[in-house]
Design brief:
CAAX prenyl protease 2/Lysostaphin resistance protein A-like domain-containing protein; transmembrane; membrane
């Protein structure tokens, strides 16, 4: 009689999250990745502000300096947010839910339009209450500045389309994923990411208003479990403010 053979060693398999039905590996980044992206944003912003402090009197030079200061920090922070899941996870498509689905776009549009109504009313009340202090950081930056048309359009497209995408990568992508990795409940993830989104804009006089603005955006992420819906909702929410900045920077609307 043959002696029983010892069992073969089990093959090593990557860790899988208990709540992942598709068998994808759990990512391994935490809050440090989010703070790294935020540090990139702050350092680039401070460096550009110091380097471009005196652009001169030329409207083109002023416009270029403002455009660079507004766009580059946000984009570079978003690049960090995209690199992290490539290095420590399954890539942004899986870990952030950057998967194009018509249902997510529809959800983002509906929530975005509903949120736009709420935030427009909240902004009107906030402006009446706070007066001149109610202006956003971008609005204050462009106050009284006449931009060349090309620069004004670039700023408009950034505020409307690019900045929401970048910010969603940071807050509803990188930060959201860090809290999921630590097993936070989804409601807690939603509330904390909303609060940090409002605080992270570094506009203390508008933090409460930013909380109201962020709630429907985070809700789109919470309901779908993916980032595209919150990106669309964020872009819908930013359209009117971006249009106002465009008209103001072209001198077609009073500052």
């Amino acid at each position: 009689m043959n002696a029983p053979q010892p069992p073969e060693p089990a093959e090593h398999t990557p860790a899988v999250r208990a709540d992942d039905s598709d068998g994808r590996r759990a990512h391994s980044w935490g809050f440090g990745a989010f703070f790294l992206a935020e540090a990139v944003f702050v350092l680039v912003s401070v460096t550009l502000a110091a380097a471009l402090e005196n652009p001169g009197d030329d409207a083109g030079a002023i416009g270029f300096a403002l455009m660079l200061t507004l766009i580059l920090p946000t984009v570079l922070a978003a690049v960090v947010a995209l690199i992290v899941p490539l290095v420590r996870g399954n890539g942004p498509r899986q870990d952030f839910g950057l998967q194009w689905r018509r249902s997510d776009v529809r959800t983002g549009l509906w929530i975005g339009v509903g949120g736009l109504v709420v935030t427009t009313l909240a902004t009107m009340l906030w402006t009446r209450w706070m007066g001149p202090q109610a202006s956003s950081a971008i609005g204050g930056l462009l106050d009284g500045v006449r931009l060349p048309p090309v620069v004004a359009v670039v700023v408009f497209l950034h505020v409307w389309l690019v900045a929401p995408f970048c910010e969603e990568l940071l807050y509803r992508g990188l930060l959201w994923g860090a809290m999921e990795q630590l097993r936070f409940k989804q409601l807690t993830v939603f509330l904390l990411s909303t609060a940090l989104f409002a605080i992270g804009h570094l506009e203390p006089s508008r933090t409460l208003l930013l909380l109201v603005i962020a709630l429907p955006i985070g809700l789109a992420r919470l309901l779908t479990g993916r980032l595209i819906a919150s990106v669309v909702a964020h872009q819908v929410n930013n359209f009117l403010p971006a249009l106002g900045l465009l008209l103001m920077s072209l001198g077609l609307l009073p500052a």
